[in-house]
Amino acid sequence: MRAARYYGRNDIRIDDLPEPEVGPGQVGIEVAWCGICGTDLHEYLEGPIFCPTPETPHPISGETAPVTLGHEFSGTVYAVGEGVDDLEVGRHVVVEPYIIHDDVDTGPESTDYHLSPDMGFIGLSGRGGGLGEKIAVQRRWVHPIADSVPLDQAALIEPLSVGYHAVQRSGAKAGDVALVGGAGPIGLLTSAVLKALGVTVVVSELSPLRRQKALEAGVADHALDPRETDVVAAVRELTGGRGADVAFECTSVQVVLDTLMEALRPTGVLVVVSIWGHRSEFDMFTLVMKEIDVRGTIAYVNSHPATIELVESGKIDLAPFITGRIGLEGLVEEGFDTLIHRNETAVKILVSPSGRGL
């Protein structure tokens, strides 16, 4: 089978690999679609971050570079290993792509397995990835989805789960006003979760395409261009002078962080969703004087079932966020280069490792 492999910074190659063996307790998945994530771009430009190096294996997977990329993917079960009796061949599934030590409690009541030591991700830290034609995954991390959800849309359930967990961390509730800084894939999907909960959403975004997507998809009530609109003043006007109840930083850009801090009401909540590759200059004075509550968020924890329910019930429509579909051979030129150099022209680009469906 073919797979896109990460060898190091600026070095991704399409290799021919043996198909994975489906062992006891595992599920064999034929990948239908895999999204390109901002984390993949960070690895390509600045990594390795979650990816191992050729000299340093990941402490859980034991793998060194090269590793297969891709952690936002959907597919169809083609085989089940010994002991797996609750999934059948042909079932549509998505993957919660964790690599976690075996002694960590990952049960349904756990709220912190995603913060456990050495945590890694399938498709970044080893154990195959969604940018390969097939993958074998432990049953715990495989989530069935209804056939009514198209597999291309299902590939967005993983990043939607990121938004779901971020909203959980914020404590946002119906009737609140949220300001989302950045309408890239995570900003838009976080907005989708907020709207599904009855929150009024204001998006600040430079890209006309992404502002239009936010409005057309119905995930934002207001989409502002910060070059033309005083975002802080606009939010205060919309809230009777109070400011936003919650804000989500989805860009890792300093000016966006500063805007959110200023636009929040006193005792408001700021959730930092983006992965910062550098230190920020944080406004400690505003933090203290407004008693802002700052919360980090990473990935998801037992979030997939509730996220899948939002999609299956029709409360969230993922179709508008798919702006491109490519084959594996176009991964770098059509996928990575577009999202790195022309990201204002795209939201989510999906890859078909097999080429079927294109």
TrEMBL record:
Keywords from the named record: Metal-binding, Oxidoreductase, Zinc
Pfam family name, one: ADH_N
SUPFAM superfamilies registered for this protein in UniProt: GroES-like, NAD(P)-binding Rossmann-fold domains
| Entry keyword Zinc | yes
Q: Name what cofactor the protein needs.
A: Zn(2+)
Q: Which residues form the Enoyl reductase (ER) domain?
A: 8-351
Quote the Gene3D superfamilies the UniProt record gives: Medium-chain alcohol dehydrogenases, catalytic domain, NAD(P)-binding Rossmann-like Domain
Q: Which GO terms describe its molecular function?
A: oxidoreductase activity; zinc ion binding
Q: Sorted alphabetically, which CDD domains does this protein's record hold?
A: butanediol_DH_like
Q: What family does the database annotate? A: Belongs to the zinc-containing alcohol dehydrogenase family.
Against PANTHER family, the record matches this protein to:
GALACTITOL 1-PHOSPHATE 5-DEHYDROGENASE, SORBITOL DEHYDROGENASE
Name of the molecule in the record: 2,3-butanediol dehydrogenase
Organism whose genome encodes this protein: Kocuria flava
